[in-house]
Amino acid sequence: MRITECAEIFGTFSNDKNIKRMKKILLLLLLFCGLTLSYTGMAQKNKPNVIVIMSDDQGNNLGCLGNPWLKTPNIDKFANESVRLNNFHQAIMCTPSRTAMMTGKYSLRTGAWRTSVGRSNMRTEEVTIAEVFKENGYATGQFGKWHLGDSWPFRAQDQGFEETVNFKCGGISQISDYWGNDYFDDTYYHNGEPKQYEGYCTDVFFNETIRYAKECNAEDKPFMIYLALNVAHLPAIVAEEYSKPWVEKGHPQKQAIYYGMITNLDENMGRLTAALEKEGIKDNTIIVFTTDDGTAGYAAQFNENEWPTKQGFNMGQRGGKGSPYEGGHRLFSFFHYPNGNFKSKEVDALTSVMDILPTVMDICDVKTIQELDQDGVSFKPALYGKPIPGNDERQLFLVKLNPNKDVLFKRNKYCVIDGDWRWVGRKELYNVKDDRAQKNNLADKYPDRAKAMDDALIVWLDKNAADRETPVRFLLGAKEHPKISLTTQDLWEKSAFSQGHVQNLEKGSGPWKVTFVKDGKYNVTLSRYPLYTGLAFNAKTKGKRSKEFTANKAKLSIGKNTYEKDIQATDTHVTFEVDVKAGDTDLETWISSVEDITIPSYFVDVELIN
């Protein structure tokens, strides 16, 4: 019973002849209510906090993992205080790793299984880590990279996070990110609204994480934070004070910047752990620290067979970012929770990014009434030195697929993991216990094993075919958000996904897959640049490959209907007013010029106007 209910009862009986008796009863009720509230508050306060940190394209570049040049004292200390997952696997690509962490599922089941071409929006019905923890009384925050959808209802704040500060698309300076961001003093989106922040990007996202943790702690409220960093993803940018030492030691410029970005990350890890300790919550905070995929190519060069050269560090593993070989997905993961009293310092059992959600749910003892249907498993037993049930029979399927379903087995990358065995590219078999560098193909020696693993892959692909091939459509004309912005990041055939592509007139192709929620009249506005920039179609662009573009005609296609308008090169946009019937359809655009160049409209705003 709530205290307000007790007060209402007291008021009802205030004139009763048994008022003294009722007062005693109500005092007992009030005492009970107070004890209940106190207990609830105490229970909430004692729940473990959770911070999941995921860097970008870092590979295994840490001092504690053997990089001979890189010094990361704060992360090394953190790792030494954590459980190391030595056989931990991410997806082969960035977005799939993130959606797998968010849902505990294979990305092919969620819609977000590529980084672009319309396949990076996560289905809204997926249950996220934020929604689960929010349901259990946690404050939820997301800071940094999202890359699971830039428009409503796919954004982080639509998927269970109560406070967000992030950039759009897959990296700072990509197409839907705020125009002109360059890692310093950038404009990010605070709960969907643009706001300028001072400082280097990594510093900002750690600042926001520390701020949010302090605010939650002041309110005795447990928190779940997803801190997703854009470093060390391209473009390679860091203050000279961080890159100069590596240049002076003879490293190539981009590698020097790469190491500088990680050095800055290391400093921020020290700031975060110190802040949690000062708040008195370090021991009761679960911190999972990992990275989304293998080493970026500009930091550790590879030869034609994907073996690393001496120019970079890759832990002796074959392949880097985007590779189905071990270096593309077998990555560091540290699990830190002093109050957990874990018995293991290292876990060699097979684990996956899909296991993070079920594991932290298990440790925090949180439940949900929603249907999860996860592919991941809890590795909590392994943290206490016990086997993970069923793990010996577990297989993992890692793929990077061509979006065109008609060429499913062409130009794709595959890895099937079964214990120590790896079936790579549907033609190479390795035992990484004996051959971590994957130099000795055993497919001819063990044909039955190779066939069994390939058969399992085909079954798995077929099982997920319907989810993979069903578009996650943009919702246009909904009352919650009658105006939606689209960019060529999500064109269905070929994306133009960076601001450089806009400047250099990259020719993306294909439609946006959309759903018009209502019959009605819509304004569809086409522009080369974001409308808030005020830049015209012919605005001077940057870069050596910039081309003249004197726009003269705009074309819009919605389903079977096509519309055309003449435009002037100095126009900033062109708007079509169209009547549209509700339903699923394709929306496609073209902007032509007197130079005989045709591009898609890089930015499209669709608004229901009646």
Question: Your description of this structure?
Answer:
The chain folds into three domains: 3-43; 47-395, Alkaline Phosphatase, subunit A, CATH 3.40.720.10; 474-608, Sandwich (Jelly Rolls). A ten-stranded mixed sheet has the order 7-6-5-4-8-1-9-10-2-11, with helices on both faces. α1 (3-12) runs antiparallel to α2. The protein has helices at residues 3-12, 19-46, 73-80, 94-103, 129-135, 201-218, 240-248, 253-278, 356-364, 380-383, 447-463, 465-469, 499-503; strands at residues 49-55, 83-85, 88-89, 139-144, 163-166, 187-190, 193-196, 223-228, 285-291, 333-336, 346-347, 351-352, 395-400, 413-418, 421-424, 428-431, 474-476, 483-487, 512-516, 520-527, 551-558, 561-566, 574-580, 583-593, 598-599, 603-608. β21 (551-558) and β22 form a beta hairpin. It has 13 helices and 26 strands. It has 610 residues and is α/β, with parallel strands linked by helices. The model is unreliable at 1-43 (pLDDT under 50). 26% of the residues lie in helices and 22% in strands. The radius of gyration is 27 Å and the shape is globular.
Question: Descriptors for this entry?
Answer:
610 residues; alpha/beta; Alkaline Phosphatase, subunit A; Jelly Rolls; 26 strands; disordered N terminus
Specify the helix fraction band: 25-40%
**Compute the gyration radius: what is it?**
27 Å
CATH topology of the largest domain: Alkaline Phosphatase, subunit A
Query: Given the structure, what is the number of helices?
Result: 13
Q: Could you say how many structural domains there are in total?
A: 3
Percent strand equals 15-25%
**E-strand count:** 26
Ranges where pLDDT stays below 50 over 5 or more residues in a row are 1-43
CATH superfamily of the largest domain: Alkaline Phosphatase, subunit A
CATH class of the largest domain: Alpha Beta
Class per helix and strand makeup: alpha/beta
